Amino acid sequence: MIRCDCPEGVPAKQIPGRPAAGRIRQDRGAWLALVKDVYPAFISWDKWEQIQAKLAENHRTMQSRFTRRDASRKGASLLAGLVRCGKCGHAMRVAYKDKRFQYLCSKLQGELRQEACQYLSGKRIDEVVVAEFLSAIAPANIDALQAATDRQLVSHHDQLKHLRQDVQRLSYAATRAERQYNHVDPENRLIAASLERRWEQALEELEHARQILGDRQTDPPRLVKVSARDRKAFSDVGKQLPSIWGDLSIESRKALLRTLVTGVNLDRGDDGIVKVCIVWRGGLVTQTEQAVPIHSRRYGELEQRVVKRVRELNETGAKTDEILSCLNGEGFFPCRGGQFTTGIVMKLKHRYGITSKLEALRQGNQPPHKCTTDQIAEEVGVKREWIYRKISRGKIRIEKDDVYGCYLFPRTKLAVRELRRLKEGKCAHVSF
């Protein structure tokens, strides 16, 4: 309602119901005539102009926020002033703590009391951008840049050629429609009205095509031209810079990055993978990914996947060391990077109530038709130490259960009878 012409009482449609009714081809300042207060309006004309001015001011303010580049400040961050949040679009600031720094976006938190968008490890982001920068100034990539620029220019010329052909075709169609209208018998009003509509529609399509062609001609692609001198200079620098990059000062590295990089957009997913979008001078874009530490994954989607895998391995009777090896081997990683440790796995088990098979057995959750050493000793009428002693001496031949990791005896009368015979000395050994 604020953008349309109805609230202030100016009709936008010339003839209601026409196919092209409501189309506005030119800005308001280019209109030949403007009739105000044709019918009662929701707001006054002055009020509408104030609203439009405020909207334009807000648009300029937001555009400046999204496009400005802050100065490269002092500090270890190489991308200070270049980094933008991929979630809300605002500039990300740098927060230093001890010898570490982070790129963080807290714009929505400060203005709308919402959660902060992102907290990202700055060192890893800088490393991946520097790697792309050093790769971009390599001699092979300089030639590739020139080839891409040439292809972009050829594509632009092809588009202009097709648009000019469209204008010629529509111009011929409009001229033909005009001739048909001029040769119609004025007394045949039905046919004359039909031909008039065709003529007007052809003129509108022609005007639209001319406008598109004009826009393309006045907005050529931003091409990066690399002269022979610059190519030679970049080739020499590209060969030497990677070896001396670590010896340069922070200020020198920042200045070098800003010769090619105009912005870096960061968007971290729940899996801790940051999508890094590097915008180069000339408008070219490079996209890459980088894993960063996460403060916590508690109760998150990724933690649920890890817990699910831990449960599956635990059901097979895998021990903590085996679970640890599987998680690290299958590509899982904890929130702060690195690899899973025994402590992390034990915390996950405790948090989600995942108990080992042996612990579940001690709590009374044992398989059917099996009994523990304590239970069989009670049935036989001996202490469990007597059972373990006979096992160590080979009098009782039994293997530990593969799943539970302990001795489990058959819950049968035959097993109890055989052990009693061993106790009374009526047999040399028993096997299970």
From TrEMBL:
Domain of life: Bacteria
Keywords from the named record: Coiled coil, DNA recombination, DNA-binding
The keyword Transferase appears for this protein: no
Pfam families in UniProt: Zn_ribbon_recom
Residues in Recombinase zinc beta ribbon domain copies: 78-132
Coiled-coil features, chain-numbered ranges: 160-212
GO molecular-function term, one example from the UniProt record: DNA binding
Protein name: Recombinase zinc beta ribbon domain-containing protein
Species of origin: Pirellulimonas nuda
